[in-house]
Amino acid sequence: MDNVIVITGASRGIGAATARLAAREGYRICINYVSDDQAAQRVLAEVRELGAEAIAVKADVSVEDEIIQLFQRVDAELGPVTALVNNAGTIGQKSPLEQMSEFRLLKLMKTNVVGPMLCSKHALLRMSTRHGGQGGSIVNVSSVAARLGSPNEYVDYAASKGALDTFTLGLAKEVADQGVRVNGVRPGYIFTDFHALSGDPHRVSKLESSIPMGRGGQAEEVAEAIIWLLSDKASYSTGSFIDLGGGR
After folding, report:
1. 34: Cβ–Cβ under 8 A, 6 or more apart, which residues?
2. pLDDT tens-digit readout, 72-98
3. Can you give the residue ranges of the Ketoreductase domain (predicted)?
């Protein structure tokens, strides 16, 4: 069976690192992104240079119509999906709850919670043996914030990742007898440009002294965990999490 992977939010950071590693592991790759055409094309060129068959698909994965079109392109150009990485996410500016607007909260929950649920739905329609599929694997990219709560910074983001963790556990049990495994990774303090979205691009460097391992992590370290969970090496793992927060 050919391994066909969809990675949401794959034009940067952890998603891009996962795409590069997937290329080395022989996957056919769909690089999903929402806005940065140039960044997506750079990652596409990199994975193709590594020998992978790959496409880049622009789609907002918090909108079901766009998700449907995304998977239809994957069906037509790569084949039925066997692996899904729900990596796309967003975060707001650092602030206490009383300064957060309804618009911010709804936008964040739609992207960080509803989006992975909808993407998983359409992946399962292809992967699940109940629907005639050959099985597959889903990895949800959560955050150590789900455990820590992120007080006075972004409790909304932490809550969204807590919801994603609960979804991971529930879906894993729901589809375990359908040939599909569902696991999660919880990265934290990783050197990516994601922190710029919260208005604190140097956050990891500033916090390194409080991390038990004494350093921030790299996107490639998270990608290794993701690809392992997707692989047959993790064949008896479902509903589990790998924390990648340097000991926090």
Report:
1. 9, 58, 59, 60, 61, 88
2. 999 999 999 999 999 999 999 999 999
3. 3-178
Q: Which residues contact 147 (CB under 8 A, 6 or more apart)?
A: 186, 243
The residues with which 32 forms a beta bridge, in sequence order, are 57
Q: Which of 33, 157, 189, 236 is catalytic?
A: 157
- The number of folded domains in the chain is 1
Whole-number mean pLDDT of the chain?
94
Residue 233's domain comprises: 4-244
How many residues appear in the chain?
Answer: 248
**Tokens 């790759």 sit on residue:** 29
157 catalytic per annotation: yes
Residue pair 106/99 in contact by the 8 Å Cβ criterion: no
CATH number for position 180: 3.40.50.720
pTM: 0.95
- Written as one letter, the residue type at 142 is S
DSSP strands (E only) in the chain: 4-7, 28-33, 54-58, 83-86, 136-141, 180-187, 241-244
